Amino acid sequence: MMNIEQIRQDTPYCLDKLFVNSAGSSLQPTVVVAAVKNYLDKEAQLGGYTVADTNGVAIETFYEAIAKLLGTQSSNIAFTHDATDAYLKALSAIPFQKGDVVITSNDDYASNQIQFLSLQKRFGITIKRIKTLANGDIDIAHFQELITQKTPKLVAITHVPTNSGLIQNVEAIGEICYQKAILYLVDACQSVGQLVVDVQKIKCDFLSATGRKFLRGPRGTGFLYVSDRALAKGLSPLFIDGGGAVWTKEQEYQVLPTARRFQTWEKPYALMMGLTTAIQYATTIGLANIEAYNEQLMQRLKHNLAAIPNVKIFDKGAKTCNLLTFRKGDKSAPAIQKVLNDHSVFHGLSTKEWGVIDYGKKGVDWTVRLSPHYFNTLEEMDRLAEIIESI
Ligand SMILES: Cc1ncc(COP(=O)(O)O)c(C=O)c1O
Question: CATH number of the domain at 31-284, out of 3.40.640.10, 3.30.390.60, 1.10.1740.10, 3.40.50.300?
Fold first, then answer.
């Protein structure tokens, strides 16, 4: 069982506010901040290179912590500066040619959609989007059809979109990709840290994530999982540096055998120590416990909001998680945000450019986003609903 009282003591800055923006950038536990400061202090005393040289074992725990979180080996993990950096490195490893097909969903993250459009512009690839069912879920039957007809170069799916609580069925898609030996890239930026994410079950070749959101790590951190299958194929980023490869002869270089070929040489080691600590903190509590408690929080919030006239929740899908988007009657975004701010409710605002297809279908161009996490309490979900009622 989780000790919420202790967890809140570990995050003292959650006590003086109602923080529900973990989908943006969460509150870090004190131990995370201490790990960063401690490492920075050492760098101040000795210089960064000496500290890195003498802290090899501690740095190695970064890869071990993420491997444990995802159910893989540390040789399958690369540090990246954020989720997008991880995603771009994975995309750049795929030798796209004119006519290649990328299959994605209507709910994939905006930046990923921009990257596919950029690939379309430069290399003439074709983008195919899997249909969405009336309940908001991805249409697996349509995906079956598409993958059989098009033999794509890549299937790319966002596990949890930035602008709704939808959980896309990445396992079902992964099984089909695996059977057909099609490369599969999963954006797990909003799911890692709030849900159990197991790369063996998802069967992906690449999985990208960020440190600052539901993992509660520092900004400027992320990581990429690369499967053994992708490594064995020799996939490596197009723009690789001396951190990912060795210049062996005048005309040759050799990529590293592990996923670290996806890293660049320079890294923010202090932040890596912070993210390691954040992941260790979460895995000690247990991701299954976090997921179960988060579900309780969200049920309570949704139940409370359902009783308030004019509150419209926009999230769809058979399975949703701790990302709730809403509007209230004809109230403007600034009007809603003012009341939330006045009550120290730290929240997010999602706008149409971050979900053009989804918001187009929903017929809105913004929603207010609430993303409670396991340091929140059920009482806070009651108070939050009362505040929203008062708008
Ligand atoms: C689903 C999803 N993918 C990717 C990203 C990009 O993450 P980062 O800013 O760490 O690159 C975000 C950020 O909000 C996101 O919500």
Answer: 3.40.640.10
Ligand 1 closest atom vs CA 162: 16
Structure tokens at 339: 């009341």
- Yes or no: say if 336 and 345 are a contact pair by the CB < 8 Å rule: no
Q: What is the mean pLDDT of the chain?
A: 97
Q: Residues with Cβ within 6 A of ligand 1?
A: 82-84, 109, 111, 158, 161-162, 187, 189-190, 210, 222
Closest residue CA from atom 15 of ligand 1 = 162
**Could you tell me the residue ranges of all domains in the chain?**
4-28+287-389, 31-284
Percent of the chain with pLDDT over 70: 100
d(CA 307, CA 68): 41
As a whole number of angstroms, the distance between CA 108 and CA 186 comes to 10
CA of 125 to the centre of ligand 1 (A): 23
CA dihedral 70, 72, 78, 83 (to 10 degrees): -20
Helix (H, G, I), strand (E, B) or coil at 211: coil
Architecture, CATH, for domain 4-28+287-389:
Alpha-Beta Complex (3.90)
Q: CA 204 to CA 202: how far, in whole Å?
A: 6
- Separation of CA 51 and ligand 1 centre (Å): 31
By most ligand atoms within 8 Å of CB, the mutation choice from 105, 190, 349 for ligand 1 is 190
Contact 327, 364 (CB under 8 A): yes
pLDDT in tens, 36-63: 999 999 999 999 999 999 998 899 999 9
Answer yes or no: pTM beyond 0.85.
yes
- What is the three-class DSSP state of 239? coil
Distance CA 31, CA 216 (A): 11
Which DSSP category does 4 fall into? H
Residue 1 banded pLDDT, cuts 50, 70, 90? confident
Q: Among candidates 19, 107, 118, 78, which has minimal Cα distance to 374?
A: 19
Confirm if 98 and 121 have CB atoms less than 8 A apart. no
Q: Which 3 state secondary structure label does DSSP give 248?
A: strand
For the record, the structure tokens of 294 come out as 């988060």
